[in-house]
């Protein structure tokens, strides 16, 4: 190993150490685990034989009566995962709290690392050096915008890691059953995650029937809950509604931003938001199907296709929050990098603009959480379109990379890049 490679490897390791060392300091100034606290409250209520949705809604209604979304007063949130999760909560409640908490945070940290590990598999040799430095920084920039969402403890970090890791297994082994099981499991906790099932049929052959069966299974598990737990399910739907009508928690997707605008003007956000969602989701899916056919035909590799596939799949979720865009932070950066490096004579100007935009957007995001959402949604759409343009422009012309998959780059590869 030459001197330059050794310096590169050591500097990458140092950056990882610094990134991980920041967390204890960060936690000291910003208490973590706000989503975990909601889970713990729901777990204790369920173990005591109470209705966790009803208990949380009572707190929300009391807050709303006293403050009515008063500026500077953080609204309470409720447990909004469907009743099928409550038996698991009751079982966990019988374990020592220190043990269940330690296991959860260990799984959570593993999930955060797995999200980066998956994204690093899509790098080409010429991209390894720069993205070795980008990877550890993505913890602090979910969706490329500064935010402390990783401290939330939201279970989405575990669920996305599980689904994406099993997708990697599917790509490597051409065996997708673990992926489909992971998607169904994730949808039991967060129903919109059932949309992740499109990853398989859009990146592998003969997966349409298993994907349809997975959607049917997920839908059945959701649809049977009002029969098994009618009261709990009714209160669950009411709790979800309060997330919107009380907490204005619409997210940063185009449909979510539209709903927030309607809400701010005192207008009902449904059913108009459903039509807005269909207006962009259907063309988005059609574009992904077209590009998938090009990929399966061999016009570009999985390294080219997978980052765009993951970003497009996340955009199919009608309600995007920070922890939903966190798993695609590195793919978003990769799409931006590939777009800029393929602009020929405009490359320098585009690079300068991207740096300025990144700094300004992050400054605004730190200043206002609402501004962050208004930036994040359009940014995802713009980078998807830029990535699609780049993919079509470079199809059949990039012969420097061969094959349609590569192993995770090792530290030695990062050093030699």
Automatic annotation (TrEMBL):
Entry keywords, A to Z: Membrane, Transmembrane, Transmembrane helix
Transmembrane segments: 12-29, 98-118, 130-149, 179-202, 208-229, 272-291, 348-369, 375-392
Protein name: DUF2029 domain-containing protein
Organism, as annotated: Terriglobus roseus
Record lineage: Bacteria, Pseudomonadati, Acidobacteriota, Terriglobia, Terriglobales
């Amino acid at each position: 190993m030459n001197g330059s490679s050794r310096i590169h490897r050591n500097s990458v390791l140092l950056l990882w150490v610094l990134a991980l060392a920041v967390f204890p300091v960060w936690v000291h100034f910003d208490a973590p685990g706000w989503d975990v606290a909601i889970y713990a409250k729901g777990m204790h209520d369920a173990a005591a034989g109470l209705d966790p949705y009803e208990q949380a809604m009572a707190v929300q209604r009391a807050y709303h009566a006293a403050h009515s979304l008063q500026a500077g007063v953080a609204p309470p949130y409720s447990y909004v995962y469907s009743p099928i999760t409550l038996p698991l909560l009751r079982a966990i409640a019988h374990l020592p709290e220190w043990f269940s908490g330690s296991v959860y945070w260990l799984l959570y940290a593993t999930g955060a690392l797995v999200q980066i590990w998956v994204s690093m598999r899509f790098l080409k040799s010429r991209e390894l050096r720069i993205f070795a430095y980008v990877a550890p920084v993505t913890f602090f920039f979910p969706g490329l915008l500064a935010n402390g969402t990783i401290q939330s403890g939201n279970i989405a970090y575990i669920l996305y890691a599980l689904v994406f890791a099993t997708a990697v297994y599917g790509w490597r082994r051409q065996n997708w059953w673990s992926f489909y099981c992971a998607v169904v499991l994730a949808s039991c906790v967060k129903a919109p995650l059932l949309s992740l099932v499109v990853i398989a049929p859009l990146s592998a052959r003969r997966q349409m029937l298993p994907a349809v069966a997975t959607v049917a299974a997920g839908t059945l598990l959701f649809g049977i809950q009002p029969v098994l737990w009618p009261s709990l399910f009714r209160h669950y739907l009411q709790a979800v509604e309060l997330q919107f009508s009380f907490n204005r928690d619409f997210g940063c997707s185009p449909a979510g931003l539209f709903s927030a605008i309607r809400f701010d003007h005192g207008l009902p956000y449904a059913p108009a938001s459903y039509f807005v969602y269909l207006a962009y989701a259907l063309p988005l899916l059609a574009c992904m199907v077209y590009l998938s056919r090009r990929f399966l035909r061999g016009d570009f590799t999985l390294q080219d296709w997978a980052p765009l596939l993951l970003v497009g799949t996340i955009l199919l979720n009608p309600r995007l929050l920070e922890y939903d865009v966190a798993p695609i932070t590195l793919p978003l950066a990769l799409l931006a990098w590939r777009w800029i490096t393929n602009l020929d004579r405009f490359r320098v100007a585009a690079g300068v603009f991207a740096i300025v935009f990144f700094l300004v957007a992050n400054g605004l995001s730190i200043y206002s959480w609402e501004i962050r959402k208004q930036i994040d949604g359009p940014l995802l759409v713009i980078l998807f379109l830029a990535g699609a343009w780049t993919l079509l422009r470079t199809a059949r012309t990039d012969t420097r990379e061969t094959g349609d998959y590569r192993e995770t780059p090792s530290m030695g590869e990062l050093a030699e890049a």
